Amino acid sequence: MVVISVASFERFFREAADLDVDKSDLKRYQGFVRDKIADLLTIAQARARADKRDVIESRDLPITKGLQESIHRFRKIDLAAEVQPMLADISTRPQLDLAVAVDVDDLLPEVAGGLSLALGQSFRVIDPNVRNPATAQWERAIRVFDLLL
């Protein structure tokens, strides 16, 4: 397991959305990423089954236009390479009934990066003046993602 650098986590959210997050937000953030990756893989598994395949492929992931754009923006962030090991660690997939293609495992950290970028920016949509998201703001942002993913 990669030790997650709190400083990298803080710098990422500062660059991605001009937010000040801290160590206390890290657990909430990790849970968010793991839950959303699990949600995406649950749908991917259902799609693979519907297509009568026993392997989940990257095309099965329900990547929306907005998430795809967030993934592309994530790739362009200067800190993307620095946070990549952290994202690879927290974007581990849950136990699934079907096999997962290697390209899916390779893509998950970037999906996690796109989700992270979108999460950071969603705080600004929910409250344009937020600087350091409080528990209630984290809960609202996560609820929005739960409704959409």
Can you give a write-up of this model?
It is a single chain. The protein has 149 residues and is mainly α. The chain has one domain (6-148): Orthogonal Bundle (Histone, subunit A), CATH 1.10.20.10. The chain is built from six helices and two strands. Helix 2 packs across helix 5. The longest helix has 28 residues, at 23-50. It is globular and about 50 Å long.
Q: How far is it from the N-terminal to the C-terminal residue, by CA?
A: 27 Å
Tally of strands: 2
General form:
globular
Instruction: Give the CATH topology.
Output: Histone, subunit A
- Count up the domains: 1
Question: What percentage of residues falls in helices of 4 or more residues?
Answer: 55-70%
Mean pLDDT over all positions: 92
Which strands sit side by side, in order, in the main sheet? Answer: 1-2
Keywords:
about 150 residues; mainly alpha; Histone, subunit A; 2 strands; about 70% helix
Summarize the structure.
The chain is mainly alpha-helical.
Summarize the topology.
Blueprint: H1 6-17, H2 23-50, E1 55-56, H3 65-76, H4 80-90, E2 99-100, H5 102-126, H6 135-148
Parallel strand pairs: 1-2
